[in-house]
Amino acid sequence: MEFFEKNKILILRIAGVLMLLIGFVVHFWVTPKEGFTQNEIAAANIARMEAKVAGGSGSSSKKPQKKDTSKFLEEFKDTQAKQMRYLTIIAMILGVGFLGYSFVRKNEPAN
Fold first, then answer.
1. How far does Cα 32 stand from its chain's mean position?
2. Residue 92: partners with Cβ closer than 8 Å, 6 or more residues away
3. Which residues, 6 or more positions from 87, have their beta carbon under 8 angstroms from its beta carbon?
4. What are the TM regions of this chain, as residue ranges (predicted)?
5. pLDDT tens digits, residue range 10-62?
């Protein structure tokens, strides 16, 4: 407890910097790159073309099932993206809060 009281300002500043760093890293790590999404689109198009060539009329019966799973996956990815966005916002707010609190001067009464 005594260690925390002596080094409270330093601990709060380190925690603030770490939270801001975590927020920025998560934000830039999760943000999709445009080329990456284009590659995914191209791979999906190739997979569709291969399925059409290989399956013929049999692939039409599998399309509704594939659409259901793709809707589920899209909703899952959207939910995951929202969670990461909220995590980023919370981490940055906590980081700014810790840093701001560490720079606030307290008026200590004279003994």
1. 10
2. 19, 20, 23, 24
3. 26
4. 12-30, 86-104
5. 998 999 999 999 888 888 887 766 665 677 788 888 888 888 888 765 545 54
